From TrEMBL:
Protein name according to UniProt: tRNA (guanine-N(1)-)-methyltransferase
Location (main, coarse): cytoplasm
Composition bias type Basic and acidic residues, residue spans: 208-228
Functional description taken from the UniProt entry: Specifically methylates guanosine-37 in various tRNAs.
Catalysed reactions listed for this entry: guanosine(37) in tRNA + S-adenosyl-L-methionine = N(1)-methylguanosine(37) in tRNA + S-adenosyl-L-homocysteine + H(+)
Enzyme Commission number, as recorded: 2.1.1.228
Record carries keyword Ribosomal protein: no
Assembly notes: Homodimer.
Sequence similarity: Belongs to the RNA methyltransferase TrmD family.
Length: 244
């Protein structure tokens, strides 16, 4: 089955862009996923092909018009999830990416200027999604990020199918640190345990490092991880076992 991606944008020439290369690019030419773009401006109704207006209530910049965006979205339809890129959206997670990758595809609406007329989200089944707490100049980079995250999970796209499993976030933790040759670089050596060949020791070390790094770099993830562990029966048991 082909994962069908449609991007609605004022800059269709930005696609496939980086998704035409490497793993995603190979997946595209192998037909694991397909890409369509829709030029939002084609749905403008005036001579000047206007897609935006000044913000109601005043303020800087321009706002994309709900009527024109809705016409563009309606032309694609809502059989597949329709996501709109906006910093006001629900933050994208690996769990949501997995769900999307398991479905028939996704449509992604890209904003520009000050973003979308809010009524679009009331009038159409469109999910507002953010790729992080920072502001981009347009939704196109966000769409590339979202699609890349989905595409690498499609069957047959990634070389070794197992290499997705203990990646950062899949376990609720960051991944453990990785090393490769040379064994010594600028006086720093690869941790001894990784060269021991003792698989039980290696996996215990990796688990511990993942915990240490998550705790210091991502206290938010760590707190959620710990919360889930203490609440689950096996987690509660483990907590007890640790008591003196
Ligand atoms: N005024 C808006 C930001 C507009 S940025 C606000 O403060 O909420 C212009 C466009 O870039 C947005 O419409 C959106 O499509 C895209 N964009 C910017 N930051 C983004 C983010 N963190 N996640 C997803 N899309 C983003």
């Amino acid at each position: 089955m082909t994962f069908a991606a449609t991007v609605l944008t004022l800059y269709p020439e930005m696609f496939p862009g980086p998704l035409g290369h490497s793993i995603a690019g190979r997946g595209l030419s192998d037909g694991r996923w397909s890409l369509d773009t829709v030029q939002i401006r084609d749905f403008a109704t005036d001579r000047h092909r206007t897609v935006d207006g000044t913000p109601a209530g005043g303020g800087a910049g321009m706002v994309l018009r709900a009527d024109i965006l809705a016409a563009a979205c309606d032309s694609v339809g809502y059989d597949r999830p329709m996501l709109a890129m906006t910093p006001r959206g629900t933050p994208l997670t690996q769990a949501r990416v997995r769900e999307l990758a398991g479905g028939p595809g996704v449509s992604v609406l890209c904003g520009r200027f000050e973003g979308f007329d809010e009524r679009l989200f009331e009038g159409r089944p469109i999910e507002p999604v953010s790729i992080g707490d920072y502001i981009l100049s347009g939704g196109e980079m966000g769409a590339l990020v979202l699609l890349d995250a989905c595409i690498r999970l499609l069957p047959g796209v990634m070389g070794a199918p197992s290499s997705g499993d203990d990646e950062s976030f899949e376990t609720g933790l960051l991944e453990y640190p990785q090393y490769t040759r040379p064994v010594e670089w600028e006086g720093r050596t690869i941790p001894e345990v990784l060269r021991s060949g003792d698989h039980a020791k290696i996996s215990a070390w990796r688990k511990r490092q993942a915990e240490i790094d998550t705790r210091s770099r991502r206290p938010d993830l760590w707190e959620r991880h710990e919360g889930a562990r203490v609440q689950s029966p096996s987690g509660a048991r483990r907590e007890k076992e640790r008591e003196p």
